[in-house]
């Protein structure tokens, strides 16, 4: 399949179809919902005669960004399906994405799973929301930002850049953020919504730091059990509030958050300040960015294997960079 790298081809395909269904990944974050909703809102504004739907499971406490549409099986007949912010097909929320007439992938993760009839993948972009904003800007006036679409896209950019703290933030990211803010959106509200946690989530953050183990290599890890989630009244998605916390610690170079699922397996969150972690995640049914990835562990044996792999990667990184 030929790599699709021109926005004009995507726009031409969008103009061709009367029905468009937009998907994103499971367990959505602000970028997944921001890019999905931002694109949907722009297309509805530009093409009011088209049916534009958003598919996926519940968005949880991110419903301030968007909510999903009720999409019937019949809606996929003769429809263009666009999947945003999703590196591989198993992670796509709502597996009916293959039931459309054609499929387009728009993403900013490494293109390890090259699915779709067309693709635009830029793994140097800060977020899929930034890519969608670039698509709009490059459309020669066919598409235009509205305040509601800008709100969603800005939320996605802020979410995936850690409020512009991560290394993926570029000069282009700041310029695009400025254009979104110039539409009149309440950017302060977006930042507040992204950083806000419930009292129960705050308790979980404290518990996770109390139980965090930091190896001499700088690798850190903590396992959050189902019992702890139930004790504090936090669901598995709510546990995502814990993920960034260890990164504030000077002693931590890279870290793992294991969240036990109801079936006894674990969702694994990899984060790093230097060591490359996406190659580690690929060994465990996962992947993602070089410094931020996700994976899965079927049991405690695999949990311990993942921990040992991160310790070795962190030790090797420190030795290479600092001779330690």
From TrEMBL:
This is DHHA1 domain protein. PANTHER family: BIFUNCTIONAL OLIGORIBONUCLEASE AND PAP PHOSPHATASE NRNA. One of its GO terms (molecular function) is nucleic acid binding. Residues 227-312 form the DHHA1 domain. Residues 19-157 form the DDH domain.
């Amino acid at each position: 399949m030929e790599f699709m790298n021109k926005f004009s081809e995507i726009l031409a395909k969008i103009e061709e179809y009367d029905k468009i269904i937009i998907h994103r990944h499971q367990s959505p974050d602000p970028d997944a919902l921001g890019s999905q909703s931002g694109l949907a809102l722009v297309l509805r504004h530009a093409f009011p005669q088209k049916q534009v739907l958003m598919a996926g499971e519940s968005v949880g406490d991110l419903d301030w960004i968007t909510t999903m549409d009720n999409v019937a099986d019949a809606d996929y007949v003769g429809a263009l399906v666009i999947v945003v912010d999703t590196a591989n097909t198993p992670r796509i929320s709502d597996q009916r994405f293959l039931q459309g007439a054609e499929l387009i992938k728009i993403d900013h993760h490494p293109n390890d799973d090259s699915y779709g009839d067309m693709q635009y993948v830029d793994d140097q972009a800060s977020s899929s929301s930034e890519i969608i904003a670039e698509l709009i800007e490059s459309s020669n006036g066919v598409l235009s930002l509205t305040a509601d679409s800008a709100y969603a896209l800005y939320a996605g950019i802020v979410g995936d850049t850690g409020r512009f703290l991560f290394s993926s933030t570029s000069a282009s990211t700041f310029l695009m953020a400025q254009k979104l803010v110039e539409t009149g959106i309440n950017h302060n509200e977006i930042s507040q919504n992204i950083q806000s946690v419930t009292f129960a989530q705050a308790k979980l953050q404290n518990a996770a730091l109390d139980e965090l183990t930091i190896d001499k290599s700088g690798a850190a890890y903590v396992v959050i059990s189902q019992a702890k989630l139930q004790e504090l009244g936090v669901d598995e998605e709510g546990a995502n509030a814990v993920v960034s916390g260890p990164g504030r610690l000077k002693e931590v170079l890279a870290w793992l958050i294991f969240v036990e699922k109801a079936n006894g397996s674990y969702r694994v969150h990899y984060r790093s300040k230097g060591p490359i972690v996406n190659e580690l995640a690929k060994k465990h049914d996962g992947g993602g960015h070089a410094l931020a990835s996700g994976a899965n562990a079927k049991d405690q044996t695999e949990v311990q294997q993942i921990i040992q792999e991160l310790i070795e990667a962190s030790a090797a990184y420190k030795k290479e960079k600092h001779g330690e």
